[in-house]
Amino acid sequence: MRIAYQYKLRPTKVQAAEIDRWLSMLCAQYNYLLADRFNWYEQNRSPVNACPLVCHLPELRDNPDYYSQKKTLPELKKSHPHYGDIYSQVLQDVVKRVKVTFDRFLKGDSNGKKSGKPRFKSRSRYKTFTYPQMKEDCLQDNLINLPKLGLIKVVLHRQLPTGFKIKTAAVTKKADGYYITLSLEDPTVPTVKPDINPESISGIDLGLKEFLTTSEGEVVAIPKHYRKAQKRNIVVQKRVSRRKKGSKGRQKAVKQLGRQHKKVADKRRDFHFKTANDLLKKYDVIVHEDLNIKGLSKSKLAKSVHDAGWSSFLSILANKAENAGLLVIAVNPKNTSQDCSNCGTKVPKKLHERWHSCPHCSCNLDRDHNAAINIKKRAVGHSVLKAKSLLSNSRIVLEAYTYCEAEV
């Protein structure tokens, strides 16, 4: 099993300056390696519908892949000796990041979905470097030993789980300081998930009036973290725009604005985790709509959709459910608000109409509650639920057979 814990770092001024210097050099190397790949891509491709009959191709060179770019690092340290101050595996991880980024652009990810063209990173956008391997005894009390950076104080707000070993460590610079993300692994934790109860199921309807409504009628109010912090954000944003570009005053105001936005993001993330935990404590199966959140975030409701953070919440809910051995199912969202949850008749409603009143069966419900019930019903007979149910029944039969055999 693999999990990640994030802690706050308390580096000294010398260590903080060294981390910033590393980030600056790694950013330059990332851009150089990415430019090398782009040069090869532009020089060696030729559109099929625009190739002339007689053409003079330049001398072709080998594709700069992961291994060939990795071999250039010793020469880099000879031509630029200051790169020798960076831990070798951290420098090698930059080559891997370039490879992953460029492969997603050309080939796509594991699902075949391609990403956009990679962009060169400015110094302010390159904020993380990774140690691909860590020693077992790297964490000593409240100090962590990072190669070539030394012992750095870390705020252990929670202890590492028993049996887990530190595999990788990623140092990140954020608006309010430095953080370290430890990737932990314990191969002894079983991957077989415990049996779930298909009857303990709830449908949730995400909204902008209320954050979510369950099929049992429970309502979670929407906190509107960004809306509440908007007045303060405007004041700080004006402070940035009034400062002269390149001045120390502007840099100070930008840091203040970054801390303000991070505070809003932290509050929203904390709310998402607590809401997901509350749902998974009550139900074994959670059903939600398979929403096109990317499309909704470009509509007139964009600010409210971003403030609610549906995508982040559903991702957290799915991850927490997987770790707990529970189930999260996404269903087709078409007409969940329009169809009557009692008789199934379509009752057209505009967006501002918040009450469902069916003229055929006299069903009267809140619009979101009606939608949540429809979402729950659409999960009935789902292939994943059927497989879980069959697995659970087969285990019950096997246990009963074993028990009878023991009695004999």
From TrEMBL:
GO biological process: DNA recombination; transposition
Region span, Disordered: 241-261
Superkingdom: Bacteria
UniProt GO MF annotations: DNA binding; metal ion binding
Pfam families (alphabetical): Cas12f1-like_TNB (PF07282), HTH_OrfB_IS605 (PF12323), OrfB_IS605 (PF01385)
Span of domain Transposase putative helix-turn-helix: 1-45
Domain named Probable transposase IS891/IS1136/IS1341: residues: 190-299
InterPro entries per the UniProt record, alphabetical: Cas12f1-like_TNB, RNA-guided_DNA_endo/Transpos, Transposase, Transposase_put_HTH
Domain Cas12f1-like TNB: from-to ranges: 310-375
Keywords from the named record: DNA recombination, DNA-binding, Metal-binding, Transposition, Zinc
Family: In the C-terminal section; belongs to the transposase 35 family. In the N-terminal section; belongs to the transposase 2 family.
Protein name: Putative transposase
The species this protein was found in: Nostoc sphaeroides CCNUC1
